[in-house]
Design brief:
Layout (H helix, E strand, L loop, with lengths): L6 H5 L1 E2 L2 E2 L6 H11 L4 H27 L12 H4 L9 H4 L11 H10 L8 E3 L3 E3 L10 E2 L7 H13 L10 H35 L6 H7 L4 H12 L13 H16 L3 H11 L10 H18 L7 H12 L2 H12 L1 H14 L5 H17 L15 H25 L3 H15 L7 H4 L4 H10 L3 H23 L6
Helix pairs in contact: 3-8, 3-10, 6-7, 6-8, 7-8, 8-9, 8-10, 8-11, 10-21, 11-12, 11-13, 12-15, 13-14, 13-19, 15-16, 17-18, 18-19, 18-21
Length: about 500
């Protein structure tokens, strides 16, 4: 006996049998996650980052419980006052015990901006003709907060994390300063992870260029997407760099280099929109973000050159023309962000405190003269700078400090020159960072500033293929980082 089928049932059958039912929403989500799950290289980088973060944070807790160095810190002339207990009495944002091992010097300003904005009376301020002080402890009618010396990107990201902490059980009852400090560490650490992934992508690009002449270029390109073992080495060398511990402190380094390195990586891969986005975001974290115009400009030049050389007819394609036009404009993005900020009240007050209190200006002639005096001080053992270090015989702590700064500059220059033929745009970014730092930093803090030079970690990763170099560098770098992170934990000057 034949069975009757409704029209709908007939429509759902064919000669091969019934049509399969569409996948459920759950199956769709599972399939999406499977397609976008992290690769093995990414998972390894994330795992190393997590272990490093736990180890650094635990080390700071343990060393603070075990040791107590003698104060004050005489490495620079002004640090002798800055590291006395009297100086900290009115500086509430540096005194809160919660996560205090991650808070030192400039951390005060980031916490202040995140919690109370730029005109916070609880942080240091500039008084015309009187130097500086704490308005809450030294009331005055006219003062300009030193918070203005810092751009809003990092503290605003901290503020977003604090908003989340306010509703998390166990965190909502902490002090405001404690929540802000924890937020700063989280933002820095996540930025550090982003920087690690960017370095891995850059190592992958180097591997693709090296293998581009091979018979199976497509397979070589896919194999080198995240740099493989080289990408992991570059990421790891960033973590164990002597000042790599800043990626887990309340400082801008983590967020800035994460955004900047990723902008460089996307520029190398000619991903115009992403490169522009990361560069613009970096430019509101630190003023040196405007140097990202260099790798973006190189990206645009390469795109135009390759199109004109290989297929001029492609210019008639509207999408190609729009992409090339956009690439030609995007180098202006970080510069435009910086100029808009500089023209605002934030930027105007930034210029005021920079000129009148911090005295940091881009002055090539003065900087060359000062660096010459620093080098002379290092080799003579006597302060020749006229005030940066303790006048007279140079303390051993100052000698070590100068030596690390000089070594950092040399390594950064050598690495940038090494990278120039392979990735000119990325190398130019590093050289731009180095130039701004060397010629406007009053000959201080170079071992921290060079963290933003990606060429250092790419060169080290290339050299690290030799197991002897790898073991030696990791040993030296980790020991130096241990010393510096211990100093930072106790509020002594590092960079």
């Amino acid at each position: 006996m034949s069975t009757l089928q409704t029209p709908d049932a007939q429509a759902n059958t064919d000669s091969t049998g019934p049509v399969e039912a569409p996948p459920s929403p759950v199956h769709r989500v599972v399939g999406l996650l499977a397609r976008h799950r992290p690769t093995g290289d990414v998972a390894r980088i994330a795992a190393v980052w997590f272990v490093w973060l736990v180890v650094v944070c635990a080390f700071q807790i343990v060393v603070q419980a075990r040791l107590q160095p003698a104060r004050p810190d005489a490495v620079l002339s002004w640090t002798q006052y800055a590291t006395t207990d009297v100086n900290l009495q009115c500086r509430a944002h540096l005194n809160d015990p919660a996560y205090n091992e991650h808070v030192s010097y400039d951390s005060e300003y980031y916490i202040s901006i995140a919690l109370n904005g730029y005109n916070d009376p609880l942080t240091q301020a500039y008084y015309p003709g009187q130097g500086s002080g704490i308005p809450a402890c030294q009331p005055a009618n006219k003062w300009t907060s030193l918070n203005y010396a810092f751009m809003p990107g990092y503290p605003m990201a901290m503020r977003g994390v604090v908003a989340v902490e306010n509703v998390v059980p166990g965190l909502s009852t902490q002090t405001d300063d404690g929540k802000a400090a924890l937020a700063g560490v989280i933002v820095s650490a996540l930025g550090g992870l982003l920087a690690m992934l960017a370095l891995a992508r850059l190592m992958g690009a180097l591997a693709r260029r090296k293998d581009s002449d091979s018979a199976d270029a497509e397979t070589a390109a896919e194999k080198g997407r995240w740099g493989g073992a080289g990408g992991l080495r570059a990421a790891f060398y960033l973590l164990v760099f002597p000042t790599g511990f800043y990626l887990a402190q309340v400082y801008t380094e983590g967020l800035f280099i994460g955004l900047a390195f990723m902008a460089c990586a996307m520029a190398v891969e000619k991903k115009v929109v992403l490169a522009t986005l990361f560069a613009a975001l970096a430019a509101i974290v630190r003023p040196t973000g405007l140097v990202l115009a260099l790798p973006l400009a190189w990206m645009a030049g390469v795109m135009w050159f390759e199109t004109l050389r290989n297929n001029r007819e492609a210019l008639r394609d509207r999408l190609v023309a729009v992409r090339l036009a956009a690439a030609a404009i995007v180098p202006l993005a970080p510069i435009a962000v910086f100029l808009v900020w500089k023209d605002s009240i934030l930027g105007q007050n930034w210029q005021l405190v920079e000129d009148n209190f911090f005295h940091r200006t881009f002055d090539v002639n003065y900087s060359i003269d000062m660096w010459g005096k620093v080098v002379d001080s290092f080799f003579s053992g006597v302060d020749k700078t006229g005030g940066i270090f303790a006048q007279g015989a140079l303390p051993s702590s100052s000698t070590v400090y100068i030596g690390l700064d000089l070594l950092a500059v040399v390594v950064a220059v050598v690495a940038s020159v090494w990278l120039f033929r392979k990735m000119p745009g990325v190398a130019l970014f590093g050289l731009g960072i180095l130039a701004l730092s060397v010629f406007s930093s009053s000959a201080q803090g170079m071992d921290r500033y060079v963290l933003a030079v990606p060429a250092i970690f790419l060169m080290l990763a290339s050299l690290g293929r030799k197991i002897t170099f790898d073991r030696a560098w990791v040993l030296v770098s980790t020991l130096l980082m241990g010393m510096l992170v211990m100093l930072y934990t106790f509020g002594f000057w590092v960079s």
